[in-house]
Amino acid sequence: MYSSTSNSHAETLADNFLELKINVPVSKRKTFDFRSDTVTVPTSEMLVSMMSAAVGDDVKNEDPTVHLLEEKIAQLTGKQAALFVCSGTMSNQLAIRTHVTDNYAREVVHQEVILDGRSHLFHYELGGIAFHSACQACPIFPSETTAMLTAELIEKRIYATNDLHTANTSIIALENTLNGMVFALEEIEKIKALATKFNLKMHLDGARLWNASTATGIPMHEYCKHFDSVSLCLSKGLGAPIGSVLVGTKAFIQRAKQYRKAFGGGWRQAGLLAAAGIFAIDQNWPKLKTDHENAHILHRGLVRLGFDVSPPETNMVWPSAKSLGLQFDQIIAEVDSIQNAEGAAGDARVLLEGAGDSMRIVVHIQTPREAIDRLLKLLEKATSSLLQKSSQPLVIGDAPAQTASDVASTAD
Fold first, then answer.
1. Residue 17 reports pLDDT greater than 70
2. Model-level pTM?
3. CA-to-CA distance for 311 and 303, rounded, in angstroms?
4. Cα–Cα distances in Å, from 263 out to 85, 91, 115?
């Protein structure tokens, strides 16, 4: 599909790829990584598709495989055009920068972006909105009764008139999914009506929109039609090694492409990576349903172990250890201690990340059922060990024995 006569050497490499032996040290111990879906690695089949790709200079708009990817995603989302970029952060930042520039034509100079205070765009992009776009970010948090932002909450924070004291609200940026939760389409429609009322742009960080569409059965274009721009990640749940795609109108994407070059994001033979993205959509996207099913299996196992955890909506599970009286710093340290004691010949190593009484566990296309079984067994051993230690009597000098809970209850 991706090969050409000028890339016959790639075809030869692809034919022999699985027989290649590369002298790279590899641990004999299998690893199951639950920290994020960004940890997925290309499969042999994906690598073959990459090595077979027809390539050209994408800065000169001459890479045919990049064209295929961009056309494919533009069609999926119902947008006029698409732009392949190196990361979700770049895609989001290009979108905001391009919208801000377009708003200058309307003489909206001092601008503000309303967004969720928990979002990637606000928390994890190094203040890029201010740095790249000279624009103010306005974080809003949902109420105690809602999991996501609502049109009602957003409308209370819109500044739509030129004022000497406040920046004008010019963009509403949402994220779907957010922390594994699906943004209800009905609420998106209400927010879109609000944006239309106040002449605001709408951007969606849809890094995991693939998961939302899989979970709800709602087509991608049904979500995307309410937004002026959407960023879609290929390297999270879909398992490509790198890349995101920004979609919008032809004029919007043309301007964003200029900013991509200014941001240092122009790349040459990017078709190698675009081929991985095409493979990921065709072969891996259908597997997300299994990821969600595995997340539910994990949820039921965690409940059995005594964790407080809500049923997952997609591929993320968020257990709380409050009900056990433990912290995840302790639990993860104990899990690591158990695994270290097993040695190199032990069962698969599990990687976790968390602190305090909450932890995010992410299931992805390289999380087999055996990984979930292994994780639950380790958590059972770790929590049992920690709870046993916390109930042992403490002897201080000649004082009567006390339990750890007795000491805690008498502390100042």
1. no
2. 0.88
3. 10
4. 11, 11, 23
